[in-house]
Amino acid sequence: MATQIAASPAVTTTTDYDVVVVGAGFAGLYLLHKLRALGLSAHAYDAADDVGGTWYWNRYPGARCDITSVDYAYSFDAGLEADWQWSEKYSTQPEILAYLGHVADRFDLRRDITFSTRVNGAKWDEEAGIWNITVAGGDTVTARFYVMATGCLSLPKNPDVPGIESFAGPIYTTGTWPHEGVDFTGKRVAVIGTGSSGIQTIPLIAEQAKSVTVFQRTPNFSFPAHNGPFPTERAAAMTADRDGYHQAAKESGAGVPLEVTELHTLDVTEEERNTRFEDVWAAGDLIRIATVYADTLNDLDANTAFADFVRSKIRSTVDDPVTAELLCPTTYPIASKRVCLDTNYYQTFNLDHVDLIDLHNTPIITVTASGIDTTNASSEFDAIVLATGFDAMTGALVDVDIEGRDGLTLKQKWADGVQTYLGLTTGGFPNLFTVTGPGSPSVLTNMVVSIEQHVEWICDTITHMDANGLSTIEPTSGAEEGWSNHVNDFANITLLPIAKSWFNGSNVPGKNHQYLPYVGGVGGYRTICDEIVADDYLGFIFNGDQCNDGVIRRMQPDVNVMLEFIATLGLPPFETLEVDAARALSAAIGEEAPRGPEVGEVLDGTLPGAAGDLDYRLYRPDTPGPHPIVAYFHGGGWVFGSAISDDSFCRDLCDRAGVIIVSVNYRHGPEDRFPAAADDGFAATQWLAQNAESLGGIAGQLAVAGWSAGANVAAVVCQLAKDAGGPTLAGQCLLTPVVDGGFDWPSYEENAEGYALTRPLMEWFLNHYVDDADRTSPKMAPLRAAALCGLPPAMVVTCEFDPLRDQGDAYAKALADAGVPTAHVQAHGQIHISVPAVGQIVSSIWVREEMGNALRGFFA
Ligand code: N01
């Protein structure tokens, strides 16, 4: 069993095992099997007296999986798959436990597991480069690698019910149910908690008990599981093309090979929508529920339509209207708490001996020796069932005293927030792996598919290390921070973090509030893990000093999708086209953009420019006027665009800021070169100042705004107005402005290609607008103005992946340095075109909100 290793080039140490694993559930069992196949010595410990993990402990009546059994099973061994026959669509806990027992037998795994033995602590020995692992009873074993395969929902949370210790009768917790079962016949039973466990068990307890009183704090959305015989058509699909079936699962979002729709909820008729909702209600399938429409999880209106449908189902199922209302969730978007699958849950509340207590209105004052007192009543019970959930994702990991480098424990490291790289590793804890740890897709997916991927990645990594004489691995702090940002970015473009739930730690008092799983899906995540390996283990340090440092995903996820989509269109670069063709292409792309929000009024007109009339479009808010006016100048590199080309963005600004937006079509190059755009912008601004009241505006309340070249016009207008002694402007809102005619900025190098606005395109734009000799004129390059003091208050937005980023940053700084009140938003993960992309990019909504607030603030 002893293994000789080179812990570092300088140290050779003997360990008891190559790998010690904590946990003998789905993850631990597969790990043992894989590691053994690699010729490594591995040993697992589990506090239970047999295999099974979560399925060993959760033996409450009604416990079963809620991913179809055909999918909720290992895929790594065809023989295992062929030999095992599931009996139901959703297998019961005993059947899943029997399956895991069968796996342990088939691969003779028990001989490498010590049961009934809790791992209490693990300490990294820096000098020897090994882990010392202490198990219950005080024994210590050593290993090169230490893997926590402890599951995401394995440590029941402190029930946090006042007075619970005073109850004289039995208290049963769903997550640690007695093996011998419980007979509730003739008993008055209280059930606290209505998550998946409560919802599964309440109907079955009600079949036996004399009375059941359900104490509900927050109702959950639950769908009928429509459980039944094993669905042979799914099994047939797998048998017909086993490899294809599993590959599709691996590449899918949720780890189940089901096609997902691209349809958006509100793009279909109400009739179509209801038909689809009914189909999903009839299917009893979590994946189909979560993907009923493409926007269910990130658009509140879409989500509400689905939630309304489910509430109508609850109302039509539950006889008593008061109880029905209490069972209807109303305080969070559907699926932001985990959706449940049930058998007869809502129907159970039609039984005379089942009552629902709403803890929101009548909280528990205390549990007494004989029952439960709420603010409304005292009730006597013979037994209490706690279905109060888990200290999820991190609880079991920090429950073991894991001490990494420099005496830092995992609990200490994560006290103010969890940081991992990929949910697999964490800095300062060399050679520690967590299977389905926080920051990986885990609980948002079919766990078995996620577990298999993690186990295989860990085993491949150990193989790589052994083949290359590498003894330690851990992530860099930069890679870890980058990953945490990416995990947050993904969560924040969805509605998922909104609910208080175990997904974000808010079910455990005092726990750090952070969305823990990775929302990017099991397929996308697998790609990332593979890319990291292919990129020489990007972001990992081997042997303490060998490292290809970097961050794997820095762009906002939806911006990335936008760029990928644009790439699929195969469009020619604008700068390779004649001007007319480039304008036509730009206009055609604009026509495909979603329409922005409704505003009170949209009207078109003309106003006098510097050399003739200019078209404008006016957007009036849907609130009683008069309103302040903002002169808006569109993007398009002084070559493209019109008064209506930024229509959705103008609507959005009008709606958010409650101001009139007047979008002006200034003249363009190459027909009208520098300084035509600037002169038109100034002439238009003067005219708006003079005619504010006739437009429904307020005299003296005028600001300017613009995007890109339009922001250049807006910035220049402010300087011209200052030099001319008027008109007085209340503010300037500049989105990714061009403020300099030169290219000597690092962001022009960093973001030269690949982010929609390229350096070659900027060169093309500038060449069509302005001669080289004029590029330093303040009328072209406001950053180069002799003095910036006295300009109106500014809001400057710059985007991380924009060639124009650095000059925008410099202008914001120069304005602030000159004493101009300046707000500067540096939009992380955004590109030049993503902030105005109303209705397409969720991750930039907050930036538009900031811009709307800034415009509003100019007139406060
Ligand atoms: O736990 P939960 P769970 N006083 O946290 C309430 C998986 N799972 O064990 O929402 C009163 O979801 C709490 O109320 P609130 C699945 O991923 C899968 O049911 O915090 N009430 C909530 O109602 C699932 O999501 C299956 O306001 C208290 C409930 O207790 C996860 O495990 C089956 C309370 C806890 O719900 C956890 O599910 C079962 C208090 N002091 C579980 N404290 C399958 O089907 C908590 N609550 C595969």
Topology summary:
Layout: E1 3-8, E2 11-15, E3 17-22, H1 26-37, E4 42-45, H2 54-57, H3 78-83, H4 93-106, E5 113-114, E6 119-125, E7 130-135, E8 140-148, E9 171-173, E10 188-192, H5 196-208, E11 211-216, E12 222-224, H6 232-240, H7 242-251, H8 270-283, H9 286-290, H10 300-317, H11 321-327, E13 340-342, H12 345-348, E14 354-358, E15 364-367, E16 371-374, E17 378-380, E18 383-386, H13 395-399, E19 401-403, H14 410-413, E20 432-434, H15 447-467, E21 473-475, H16 477-492, H17 522-534, E22 540-542, E23 546-547, H18 557-569, H19 579-591, E24 601-608, E25 613-620, E26 627-633, H20 647-657, E27 660-664, H21 676-690, E28 697-707, H22 709-724, E29 732-735, H23 746-750, H24 759-769, E30 794-801, H25 805-817, E31 822-831, H26 845-858
Parallel strand pairs: 3-4, 3-8, 4-5, 6-19, 8-20, 9-18, 10-11, 10-18, 11-14, 12-13, 26-27, 26-28, 28-29, 29-30, 30-31
Antiparallel strand pairs: 1-2, 6-7, 7-8, 15-16, 16-17, 21-22, 22-23, 24-25, 25-27
Bound molecules: 3-acetylpyridine adenine dinucleotide (N01).
The site of 3-acetylpyridine adenine dinucleotide (N01) has 27 residues, from helix 5.
